[in-house]
Amino acid sequence: MPSTATRAAQELFDHHRATLDRALQAIAERGYWSPYSEQLKQYPQTAIEGAQAAFEALLNRPFVLQGPAAVGRAGAERSPYGFDLGVSYDQYDPEQLLARQQQALPAWRDAGPQARVGACLEILQRLNALSPTLAHAVMHTTGQAFMMAFQAGGAHAQDRGLEAVAYAWRAMAEVPQAAQWLKPQGKLDPLHLDKRWHIVPRGLSLVIACSTFPTWNTYPGLFASLATGNPVLVKAHPGAILPVAMSVKVAQEVLAELGFDPALVSLVVDTPEAPVAQQLALDPRVKLVDFTGSNAFGEWLERHALQAQVFTEKAGINTVIIDSTRDLKAVVKNLAFSLSLYSGQMCTTTQAIYVPRGGIRNGDEQLSFAQVAEALSAAINALLADNDRACAVLGAIQAQATAARIDACRELGDVLLDSEVREHPQFPGSRVHTPLLLKVDAAQRDAYAQERFGPIAFIVATDDSAHSLQVAREVIAAKGAMTLGVYSTDEAFLEQAEALAQDVAVALSVNLDGGVFVNQSAAFSDFHATGGNPAANASISDGAFVSRRFVIVQSRRHAAQ
Amino acid sequence: MPSTATRAAQELFDHHRATLDRALQAIAERGYWSPYSEQLKQYPQTAIEGAQAAFEALLNRPFVLQGPAAVGRAGAERSPYGFDLGVSYDQYDPEQLLARQQQALPAWRDAGPQARVGACLEILQRLNALSPTLAHAVMHTTGQAFMMAFQAGGAHAQDRGLEAVAYAWRAMAEVPQAAQWLKPQGKLDPLHLDKRWHIVPRGLSLVIACSTFPTWNTYPGLFASLATGNPVLVKAHPGAILPVAMSVKVAQEVLAELGFDPALVSLVVDTPEAPVAQQLALDPRVKLVDFTGSNAFGEWLERHALQAQVFTEKAGINTVIIDSTRDLKAVVKNLAFSLSLYSGQMCTTTQAIYVPRGGIRNGDEQLSFAQVAEALSAAINALLADNDRACAVLGAIQAQATAARIDACRELGDVLLDSEVREHPQFPGSRVHTPLLLKVDAAQRDAYAQERFGPIAFIVATDDSAHSLQVAREVIAAKGAMTLGVYSTDEAFLEQAEALAQDVAVALSVNLDGGVFVNQSAAFSDFHATGGNPAANASISDGAFVSRRFVIVQSRRHAAQ
């Protein structure tokens, strides 16, 4: 007989069934869809007006979550907009925390897919209601401008969470719960078995969050694991704990209200001086690891956490190839926004832009390499001319190391456009920097074919467009990429680009010169990363992202006569 | 425009569509179904009558396959029934072979899911027609008795291949090929993108076959990889090459007839003295490895072939727990067949049988431990009393090392039933041995909790049935298991067993005392292994078995105005 908690969660499943069904349709069709509004004005007036105060009420005090007895406190977040958050979080004894989650696992497993998915859908809906407040927390940890923090940290992250739940539900629902197995035996009675199948979670799931997208990059792994029955440890980045803590709190509240152990979703905090992710990732009870962050640690996880299924999103050399254009102005306007948005701190932001050193055709005219470079520089300048608008696009630089990298990279090439420090209109002391644009030759691979995280991009002079394709192929095969943009008026060239994209397994955007940008990835439509090149070993989200999070355990017996 | 080869393969897809659709229904329902008859008499009379001669025509000569220029020859198979096969096979330069497959990959990828699945379905149908001849090749490499070789090596293996194709097709078909993405922009025109998605194979696929089930354990990985676009290297076990070579030949014929490079499926042979699997498994072009065999090499692959997705089926401690029975005679008759079938050389054969040292309830009577042990010994004796029948159940021991293990294990416990050497009625010199049954105490874990491959089983005396559950839990958690059989008349105990099965992720069979055996695993219904305990890291076949074999590459552009 199902427990009270299970029945209550199943009611949530029924309550949210229409949303789930529409999400299932969306992942089958992958056209545009989102259940969570990205328009602030669509949220209740009280939520909008109270958001700032609700955020401030969290500052300068402990943030309280459920878990074992605290053995310490950590938290030293500082807003990239120039002030300390002053929030502290409990630290737990890892042994106690993992043991508690292990103990909570069977009840969560036995609740079954419907109950778990019902709980996940409720958590997502409550996260959505919290979006206006979450936006402030995301802004003041990541440095994203407010509107981006609201959209990417709120609705878009929730979309990604729901998308993962939909994939998880589909994968679980495709396994029948029971069957009659009747095998004919000629003139004898058939063999007749009753069979049952259980969805069994792999074990504990460790989700290692990043500092720049603490919700967007965390929700897919969190919800995919939780829906498939795995308790989740969310290890926040020391620089962006608060949005993760707020998300964990919502999950804990829903779980506790239903009667499950709220520690099924637990927050883990650490400090740069005493990191804990390595130790947790190697614990034999941890069977799933989701990671967003550096190549070094991602590759370490892939090589060492062999007891676990490891899903990594690392970094690569995001690439644009310009072969020929119809309207270069529209192209560079589009690219200028891509390069400037959140100061290039997106894992999808272009770093290398290949342009033939002899220039390109633009409509009826031939433009020199210098003219192309100048057009892009001018477009960035135009976009960022108005300081208020610039700050609303750029946001702030999350980490001081990223700001320092701008200076360190200046000498890697010829400066086409130098990075400037800007003064934020509301937050003096913000870490605001405009993009640095460098010119290098294709031979200077040490410069442009290493990841340079932040507002740093290279225009790379190649022999010709065939050479651009070849260099891009080699660099992406070796270093990976999340995105490839190609501009050409020649369909034969675009077919080569389409083949290249498949050969190195990178998502291709063709001739984006309007209101869609190469670094944007829309849930329910764009697969984020392919998992097929060194930039990531998994895609968010597809069937492979969820199917390895559970196993199927069968039981069979002779059918009752 | 699709190539001629692609169009021809798409026609095969249409031709076999009804079979595929029925297979899709089967994996969704997992009741009984098989498209390939396990009844020899259902095959054409000419095929049955010509099978022996067709097999003999292959002996004592080179077996010819397509591939790069040969650089050597290997093959020293000896039938466990006592004669040399005398077949030799080409060996290729690995660099040339891998380069050729890499070159063949794009055309196979670009043919698309329908064409690839069409080719796979045709290969399977031709393999089915070859079943009577394949049976002899399986028999005289594995040692399986003829009827088992015909069924398990023929129809059942083809079922497993088709099952993998069905999962692969479902996973690929769930990815839309294209979509219109229309995002509303308030009063402005919506953003409008055309999007396309490509199924992109991971790369080269290495399938490492085993000596006991060279087709059954090979077809799932082979067909899952091939259907999803990956060229396949089948590395045969030196002791069982011929059935693999015959299967590869059928695949090559279909591929060549369609106009694809037949080397998309290639045979790799080696010798025990100069094995090649390690080197191939670490090649950066090899992105998928399927392995059936020893724990030592399986774990080595899991730890070292980190550039690849690795699917292993290794070994564990298959377990039966006897708590109480209604009809012990029926139970021991069932177990006697399980332990004797193919001399215990199935990865699903029981090794440890836990019985309380105080005995068990059987119906209305109390039986002592000795009575239970004696009943099982007597049942094995009865089953194997008639030598012809015994040989038809036992088959022959594949490897001399397995026969030697019987002797080595005698001193591990008290001999309840000694292993006997038998004379095969048709093949003098066959390696035929009856099961060895030992009594040990639960404390003697070194004896029974190590895999003892072959006709070697232990009755393990425990404190009581709760102790049986506890020991089974610990042993399976540590060493893994493919199968768990439980006998009890107490539903509360069976519920504990059901929980145990989930906790250690092992397939459970309850009270099998008729014509179904714990070591049997039926395609389209029983998941073979769970992938959730140390005996295997993957299941044959489920969604997770196929979804990691390809990635999804998208391209998007503004819709034409």
TrEMBL record, chains A, B:
It holds the Pfam family Aldedh. Keywords: NAD, Oxidoreductase. GO terms for cellular component: cytoplasmic side of plasma membrane. GO terms for biological process: L-proline catabolic process to L-glutamate. GO terms for molecular function: L-glutamate gamma-semialdehyde dehydrogenase activity. Transmembrane segments: none annotated. SUPFAM superfamilies: ALDH-like. InterPro entries: Ald_DH/histidinol_DH, Ald_DH_C, Ald_DH_N, Aldehyde_DH_dom, PaaN_2, Proline_metab_enzyme. PANTHER family: DELTA-1-PYRROLINE-5-CARBOXYLATE DEHYDROGENASE 1, ISOFORM A-RELATED, DELTA-1-PYRROLINE-5-CARBOXYLATE DEHYDROGENASE 2, ISOFORM A-RELATED. This is Phenylacetic acid degradation protein PaaN.
